[in-house]
């Protein structure tokens, strides 16, 4: 009796501890991971209850229905789409399908922190090409390096700078990259782009059989915790990638949350517009304080290190979580207006100097 009570109370403690350690949906200080500041939409929350009720059941063996749903939404063939545990899972799937240990993978410096880790996991050699002082890619140098590599990564918008390369430059770059080098066109933040800045990704995958466009539900869709990402490319390459699709690897929550999100497209678009306008407001305020930020088109701003201003130290005692880089730069995710005010307060000592 005593023993059972002890076990019960232990189990209870586990849950209490775990739940109290979960991140809060709304936290104006959490600006280091480029998460969405909004909690899940009501429609998505209530839809998720359906998969909780059948948690004893496996999801589909391979995520055929999610694949078809996304393909239909995009306007591509179902067999052109692969699904992953976040964009992260998709990228690892690509590396698993097209690389061998020792191959080279070209990326910029700095880039999304994941890329050097993914290269290491796939036993690839990372080749880095530095961004210029405004955070732009040297696409000429990248195309050159791609000639001796298996994979080359272009993020558009880029992380951490938020910058975008013009469509014509991307086009020229793709023309130059050999067809047996796979181009990962990482569009994790594409939904934040104004329509005039979007690439015609469907047309690109039609014309370039070596391009994989990678996207995620973690950012604009605000579902980072559910781990849903996808890639799309030419059918022949997609067939190779689909062979690496992990059996039972995508939970039913992914399918349900994506369907509910597509049904709530208007509300999502409104949130995306709010985040984009908050970014414009923060950049405008920074400019008026004399603080330079790169031409950001995603849900974050990037202040390059300039040697003089110790950005990281300004945030040290504010409680704000931001991402800082070895080169002295910081990247700050766009949150709500309260977050923006806290960021501006942290930077105020610089403005009055
Ligand atoms: N690509 C880029 C450029 C990113 O910034 C991120 C997340 N920070 C990812 C991919 C991976 O996102 P996820 O695995 O959550 O989809």
From TrEMBL:
It holds the Pfam family Aminotran_1_2. Residues 29-346 form the Aminotransferase class I/classII large domain. It comes from the Bacteria. Its cofactor is pyridoxal 5'-phosphate. GO terms for molecular function: pyridoxal phosphate binding; transaminase activity. Keywords: Aminotransferase, Pyridoxal phosphate, Transferase. PROSITE patterns: AA_TRANSFER_CLASS_2. Belongs to the class-II pyridoxal-phosphate-dependent aminotransferase family. This is Aminotransferase. It comes from Mycolicibacterium agri.
